[in-house]
Amino acid sequence: MAKLGINAPQAIALIGSHTVGRVHCVHLVSRLYPTVDPTLNASYAEYLKMRCPSPNPDPTALEYSRNDRGTPMIFDNNYYKNVIELKGLLRLDNALFLDPRTKPYVMRMAQDRDYFNEQFIAGMAILTEHNVLTGSEGEIRKNCQWVN
After folding, report:
1. Is 35 helix (H, G, I), strand (E, B) or coil?
2. Predicted confidence (pLDDT) at residue 2 exceeds the cutoff of 80
3. Cα–Cα distance between 120 and 13 in angstroms, integer?
4. Do 11 and 119 form a contact (C-beta atoms < 8 A)?
5. Distance from C-alpha of 42 to C-alpha of 30, rounded to nearest angstrom
6. C-alpha 35: how far from its chain's center?
7. Residue 19 counted as an annotated binding residue
């Protein structure tokens, strides 16, 4: 990200987009089975095991957990509040809080929604200017999951 001109708080804010959406079980089970990842909140791990009961989930099944149980469809700073409680779905999420280099940014974004929004906007503005595809080089998708 630094090569693009995105600084640390902006990069951490961009990761905060995990505040909306979901993660399919196939991407979670390595944190739950055969043993629970020790960086994961124990009660949250039990909840995730209910959402993803099999260590070998069907990759075509719609088994998932929302990134943010509290406000799953609202773009807010709850992601960081969850991360502080070690309730991040992906390893990267909890690592942001556990790493002393990024922890201060996580703490501030959890406490200050405006700061999170400012850093996210600044990082996104830089990101959208990088390597823009034009003409036949790219497309604007009607559904992000599928090529038009």
Report:
1. coil
2. no
3. 5
4. no
5. 15
6. 22
7. yes
CB 64 within 8 A of CB 51: yes
Q: What is the mean pLDDT of the chain?
A: 91
Q: Is 27 annotated as ligand-binding? A: no
For the chain, what's the residue count? 148
The pLDDT tens digits for 97-142 are 999 999 999 999 999 999 999 999 999 999 888 777 777 777 777 7
Cα–Cα distance, 64 to 32 (Å, whole number): 13
Per-residue pLDDT, 60 = 85
Q: Residue 24 annotated as binding? A: no
134 is in an annotated binding site: no
Q: Which of 32, 7, 21, 9 is nearest to 91 (CA)?
A: 32
